[in-house]
Amino acid sequence: MHLFDILKSKGSAVHTVLPDATLEEATRAMVQRNIGALLVCERDLTEGERVVGIITERDILRFSASGKGPLSEHRVSDIMTTEVVTGAPSDTVEETMGMMTKHRIRHMPVLSEGRLVGLVSIGDLVKNQIEQLAMENHFLKRYIAG
Ligand code: AMP
Predict the structure, then answer these.
(1) Is the beta carbon of 108 within 6 A of some atom in ligand 1?
(2) What is the pTM of this model?
(3) How many CA atoms lie less than 13 Å away from 138 in the CB half-sphere?
(4) 76 pocket-lining for ligand 1 (C-beta < 6 Å)
(5) Protein residue with least CA distance to atom 3, ligand 1
């Protein structure tokens, strides 16, 4: 199984936020959409949208615990991660899980020829693995039963 298989059923929509949005706006966007991460994109006049970082619920939690003040007074660019780890549609689910474990991340934007084509979360990968195992189990049982 590859990331393009997952994106085929999940779709290619990626929720984004501007770097100068407040942390309160980013939090509200994540809660409203029931997601744990937003890709931070800048609008570039020549190139269109450009990925400049990623912000996840973990960053908001860390900020909240730091006592640095209200979410409404800080910007996404203050706490986002700027070195974004990305995957390719041809990467396997196993490879991607390995990368996520190595980097301790749960969200992976997927790029094809420099263009954003989707985002997979650890939840999407686990769901896919469970479905695969259930299917294997089904066929093995049928094979054993003759
Ligand atoms: P997560 O486990 O995805 O909530 O993220 C944990 C930390 O890693 C947070 O500081 C995120 O900003 C960062 N992070 C999440 N996904 C990525 C990614 N694809 N590339 C780089 N950093 C990430």
Answers:
(1) yes
(2) 0.90
(3) 6
(4) no
(5) 106
Percent composition of the chain: helix, strand, coil (DSSP 3-state, to 5): 50, 25, 25
* Whole-number Å distance between alpha carbons of 73 and 24: 8
pLDDT single digits (tens) 94-132: 999 999 999 999 999 999 998 899 999 999 999 999 988
Instruction: Tell me if 105 CB under 6 Å of ligand 1.
Output: yes
C-alpha 36/C-alpha 23 separation (Å) is 13
The secondary structure of residue 21, as a DSSP letter, is S
Residue with tokens 């093995």: 140
Bridge partners (DSSP) of residue 22 are 75
Q: Is 81 close to ligand 1, i.e. is its CB under 6 Å away?
A: yes
C-beta of 106 in contact with ligand 1 (< 6 A): yes
Residue 73, Ramachandran bin (φ over 0: left; ψ between -120 and 50: alpha; else beta): alpha
Distances (CA, A) of 71 to 25, 27, 39: 8, 9, 18
Sheet with 37-44: strands ordered across: 16-17, 37-44, 48-56
